[in-house]
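Researcher: I've been going back and forth with a colleague about how Lasso peptide biosynthesis B2 protein might be arranged in three dimensions. Neither of us has a model we trust, so I'd like an independent prediction. The organism is Steroidobacter flavus, in case that matters for your notes. Sequence below.
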Amino acid sequence: MDEYFLPPHVHCCRRGTAFVFLDLKQDDYSMVAGPAAAALSALIDAKAPSHTHELRELEQAGLLTRDSTAGRRLVTTETDVALEPLLDLDTTAVSARPWDYWNFLLACTTAKARLRWQRIENTVGAVAKRKARHSNHQTPDVERARQLTAVFQQLRSLFPANRLCLFDSLALLEFLARYDIYPTWVFAVRLEPWGAHCWIQEGPFAFNEDVEQTASYTPIMAV
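Model: Here is an independent structure prediction for Lasso peptide biosynthesis B2 protein. You can compare it with whatever you and your colleague have in mind.
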């Protein structure tokens, strides 16, 4: 039986009987169902797949590889489920300081430039490498993260960019990094209706999304 691996730029999740792949190199999502999904399930469950032709097609599409040196174990993304909102906008009162304005402007400008001029693969890679450099940091102080996220949300209207999950999540990551806080960037999908989404979380706390909304998605990549 051929052994298959995930290329470094590919992530996947299982939703019901289907699989969804995120190809960062192509900046594209692909859903796999039917015999190909059955073959993937067999591989993940360490069984002999009966639809090897479909697996070869996935390999030709760049979503799988048989080169163990160029890939990683074929597993679906697993991450903690956010159960609580970090912010209570009715009770979280903050006052932005002068340097918060400066850090906010730099964070938003950096996020906008990266999304406009860089490939998403490079942007995600830069965020992952920065977080890895600070992997010896302790889990972020929740109260400090709450106050800073509230500051970001308070200042958000000052930056002229549409409120899209990709920009807002990346800008919040850049802002928090300036205070040595490195939470997780979660990308997720749903099938009916189809949707792709992302948000910031740490442990049980969703920083910039409602937990009822996050619960309707399946994580496909956590950075």
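Researcher: What would you highlight for our discussion?
Model: I'd start with this: The chain has a mean pLDDT of 93. After that, consider the following. The helical segments are 34-44, 52-60, 98-117, 120-133, 142-155, 165-177, 211-214.
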